[in-house]
Amino acid sequence: MSDIIAAARGFFRGAKGIADAYLMVLRHLFRKQLTEPYPEFKRELPERTRARIVLTRTPDGDERCVACYLCSGACPVNCISMQSEEREDGRRHAAWFRINFARCIYCGLCEEACPTLAIQLTPDFAFAKDDIMKFVYEKEDLLIEGGGKHPDYDFYKHCGVAFGKAGKGERPGERPPVDVKNNLP
Amino acid sequence: MEITQSAASALNFWEPGALSLAVYGALLVAVMGVILFLSAWLNPTKKSPNKDIPYECGITPTGQARFQYPTPFYLVAAFFLIFDVEAVYVFTWAVSFTRLTWTGWLQISFFIAVLFLSLVYVWRKGGLEWSANPMR
Amino acid sequence: MSMTMGIVVLFVKMLAVLAVLLGMAAYMVLLERKLLGWFQLRPGPNRVGPFGLLQPIADGLKMLLKEDIIPRDAERLLFLIAPALLALTTLLAFAVVPFGPDLVIGGQVIPQVISDLNVGLLMIMALSSIGVYGVALGGWASNSKFSLLGAIRGAAMMISYELPLSLALVPVVMLSGSFSLTDIVNAQQGYPFILVQPLAFALFFVSAMAESKRVPFDMPEAENELMAGFHTEYSGMRFALFFVGEYVNMVLLGALTAVFFLGGWHGPFLPPIVWFLIKIMITPFFLIWTRASLPRLRYDQLMHLCWKVLTPLALLNIIVTGAFMAG
User: Would you list which residues of chain A are within 8 Å, Cβ to Cβ, of chain C?
Assistant: First the structure.
């Protein structure tokens, strides 16, 4: 007899479980939907979102990249390539700079590696193409106006390299170079 | 007289009988044929040896897929044959139920009891289990 | 004159049934996707046309233009006809389903059924048995292991559930005294059979769910383990035919539930055909709702439910019903 009661209890518990599932699902029919219809509604992405890569400029409009090859070396899929060159005023820069976005995995290691904060990842993730060759971006496509995430930084204000009009230690905020031969205590 | 009448009614398109069923069946076959012809006519065919390989999640399949399968499936087929044939007897009783009344009920109850006993027998013999160690 | 008119009327009737069925099957796919979306707090397809209403047409055109791939070593003929076989049997079963009472137009009686066979119920049973061949042969002929497993599971499951499905209908035949679906609906003039046969209804409904190979009984095409089960290797229009078969089968089971248990076209206020369509839609809605609610059964549980629970209950139900009616 107790077996029958236990079996009946089990039956009703199971039936209640199934009925609860059905009711729970039915209640969802009348709840607010969570979907954001994408092209009409675009969510504001955080500044640090990793998507399309750009090359930024200093506050005075010069390019930041010094063609040190660190981003190229850090890239796990070898999608960055460039040719280093010395400018007429003595500054190093990239003669050409190429990123193959068809290979890029948007890991952000190039941004981590960059000493001059030139290469940066932007939140612009939607740039699909109809041809894979259109994913190869040259320097002209990559360079943008302004400094991206770090608008005020200028590498050559801190590095103490002589080029152009200013020699060593002549820029604002720099001290004149130390004469190592007269620097003994 | 009767034969000609039934023949006439069989050929009557107003009558919802076997003739309309046959016409409907023919129409369906034609529709299926048209659909398959259209798809064969419109679809692109690009042959490639890799495309013809049966899908196995990217792993190259080995051997044929025509192997033996577990006995319980065969047993189910056998039980189905037996029980479905007996269901036919139950149906013949059910359709003439109002004319047979209590006698018919007693007879079919006996029949169903035998059927039930055979089901219990199969059950006790383990014919309905799907493995040697049935998980409950 | 009368005969030509008869042919014309018959063709109009058949084409109307076909159009309604294929349209319903196409829009059942949309309904399912929409409902599943709503159940999961998302809008479902809403890009093609207003509210996604043109989605089925887009899908159909896409399917028609897809390549028809026949896998290596497949049993060509069987592989090619199996989907058509499945779609054909489910569509053919609708020949005996009455959509409404006889119409009288200009003194001519026009029955709203293609073929009112006096063995209609048996024919539907037979056709649903033949439909198993579509699944079994399609899966076997593909020469793919997933397909074969799906086909064997499907065949064993479908023939097993055929038994409680037919036995659950025996009380209906007893109450109406006929195999003709029109007579069965006419016998429910006063009250639908679900009121006197709730157990038979439950048995029929569970078996019907299994017959339509849907969650929680979708072992033949269990995505997580068998990819797509028996139609893994199908593409293009043949895959679409399997789909048509499945969704027409849903409509068919809705129609059968309506005819056998919910009183067919009988109902107050609205015209009979509207009542019938409303009653048809109850079962598919419930099947979709179930798909959103329940997990899948294990295969041995599935067969145990059929052979150890449903079949004995159906047999018992027949005896008890007989005792009540004879007494």
Answer: 18, 21-22, 24-26, 28-29, 31-35, 37
